[in-house]
Amino acid sequence: MRTSDMSDAGGPGAVGAPGATEKAARRPSWHVLLVVVCAQMLIWLDTSVLNVAVTTLADPADGLGASPAELEWVASAYTLVFAGALFAGGALADRFGPRTTLLAGLALFGVASGAGAFVSSPGWLIVARAVMGAGSALLMPATLSVIVQSTPEEKRTRAIAIWSSSSGLGVAVGPVVGGALLSNFWWGSVFLVNVPIVALCMAGVAAVVPELKGPRRRQLDLPGMALSVAGLGGVVFGIIELGNGQAWYGPHVLLPLLLGGALLAAFVAAQRRSPAPSLDVRLFRQPGFAAGSVVLLIAFMALAGHLFYAAFYLQGPRGLSPSDAGLVMIAAAIGIVLGSQASPAMSRRLTARWTVAAGVMATAITYIAYAWLDGGTPLWFIAALLWIQGFGMGLVGTPVTAVMMSGVPPQLAGAGSAVNSVTRQVGGTLGVAMAGSILSGVYRARMSDAQLPLDDGLLSPAAAEQARTSAESARALAESLHLPELATTADRAFLDAMYAATLSIAALALIGFAVSVTGLRTRTRK
Model's pTM, two decimal places? Predict the structure, then answer.
């Protein structure tokens, strides 16, 4: 059956479980949408808060003294578990209903956030972030499943647009809140702030979100989930080790990459034979679903990688405080919100294909522009780039999601929602690993070639090696030893590393542009 035929038949939410429509009608739909969007926004709030906090976490005095590799794992552990467990989250939403799954995900996320605020080492923070990822894996597919099943077809595209724009709100609020907290409290406050928000969301879900159970109870695929997490973990570990100076052919890089790839291949093969798969490969028979998944994967891979080095740039060579950096990043958030709201009308006029293509191309242009930034670039120019970047991402999310979900049958709404979410999180994980590896590798190379003040006896060999580890460590040493030339050298090496990373990210976005033009040919419904 063609995608358009399935879309004309009503799409994933046209027919819910028996009595689902009647249950949903008992509550005003905007009440349900508001609560679901708030729960969804929590995920993006936490991600954007971390973007501001990375430099503080790297500080040995005010933070945890985390190394670049540990910071990559603080970000990647969350998205890795998130992505791997999302398939199970989708199955749980279909089996037990999205309302129950939402409440469970929020509770797990809140407990892990509270624990993460008081850990004493980067290792335990990585563990806490992984548990938070498991909570988010229950939360995200359930939010989209509620929207798809409970919203009338004629209002569904607009509802998905609002759902997508919640990411912009989270990106907007996160840096501002995170910057304010870091300026007045200890680093753990950026995680502790999640707890009262979780409590508020749980109260809202319990009060207004209806239960919308599907017509069949899906079984859980625990072996499949284990294969997906282990496979992604191997790939990410190999990429991060490559950035830490390991040779690509060395055992610390090549073996994890090969093992991870083999486990992911085994995961796909097992899903094709499983009677209750975590990843229902039948969904990818729909051309729009398959192409949309690739575009989302690439777009979020590029965005996450870019935000990782952009946070270091704003608080490093550009010299902004966490709160000031958060204020600058509001421009991207505003762009995401406006782009998400403009995308339905643009899709009707230009088709989803060209709306998404325009959005991806806009982001690629901003990534290329970062190759010309330095320590004196005007803030208005940086804010303009962030706004364009955000608007472009806003144009991507809603049309792609609408095209993907238009071909998903009602009984697989949770599974389709999970795949939609998985592509975003897998992209985020790989993007951080890719950008972090390029950033770390090029920085080390530049600092190894630089003339450090070793011969003058001002910098011991051990301190010089510490300066080569990260620009943050170099600046801390420069301040403590009164060596401004060391900070200047580190900033120059960081900028060279950022240029290499941002051009790689731009090339990736251009691939996404090509896929969107050739693969997305389905017009979204009005």
Answer: 0.67
